[in-house]
Amino acid sequence: MTAQIVTLTINGLHVSGLASETILQIARENDIYIPTLCYLEGLSAHGSCRLCMVEIAGQAKLQPSCVTRIQEGMAVTTHTEQLLHYRRNIIELLFSERNHVCSVCVSNGHCELQDLAREHEVDHVNFTYLYPSLPVDASHSRFVLDHNRCILCTRCVRVCGEIEGAHTWDVKNRGIQSLIIADFDTPWGVSETCTSCGKCVHVCPTGALTEKGKSVAEMLKKRPSLPYLVLNRTMERR
Ligand code: FES
After folding, report:
1. What pLDDT, on the 0 to 100 scale, is given for residue 237?
2. CATH of 85-237, one of 1.20.59.20, 1.20.1600.10, 3.40.50.1260, 3.30.70.20
3. What is the rounded distance in angstroms from the CA atom of residue 198 to the CA atom of residue 80?
4. 39 CB less than 6 Å from ligand 1?
5. Ligand 1 test: best mutation among 26, 33, 41, 66, most atoms within 8 Å of CB?
6. Is ligand 1 within 6 A of the CB of residue 10?
7. pLDDT at position 225, please?
8. Which letter does DSSP use for residue 164 in this model?
């Protein structure tokens, strides 16, 4: 069976790809930037943060580009005043939901949420801060989970299940009450499934998952290893 080639436009540029590809994939292949947060190449797309929303001509609703497949004749727009407004709102809501205090964060200067805020010129938050009382799990010998800085992107859940194969992480509760948990909600340090590989720490976009012993702004994430791991696992399956 031959793969179906689809042609479309993104920001007026004629592009093409396989029918199985998403708008985000085609945009990246053509050096068209769309902001993302929950998406990470190599992991399944989750479509939860909504930062990658785009406009599609003829469709009333905005669509998340990381999970929307391309279609013949689609006309996609990635940057409009409305999209920028919504993206700013999403970033502000993420800051207001938990306790992101950048000035004392180990990931200060190396945080994807902070980078997106800067890119979208978010210099204050228009929503009421919730200041939830959230725990820090420092029970693991090498790593720390700080729920105050978690944005629930679930990259950690997906990398642990899909790449490491341990499935230590999961999410409990719903909506604003959601929390990342290890195993059946045990302290990370006594988890029976965690292999201490550190993949979750390095895919985390913020300072929610970090290495122990890091001071303010010291935590650098090592992301480039992910495509290599994905390739190795694919070769193993052959
Ligand atoms: Fe597409 Fe988060 S990157 S919804």
Report:
1. 58
2. 3.30.70.20
3. 38
4. yes
5. 66
6. no
7. 66
8. I
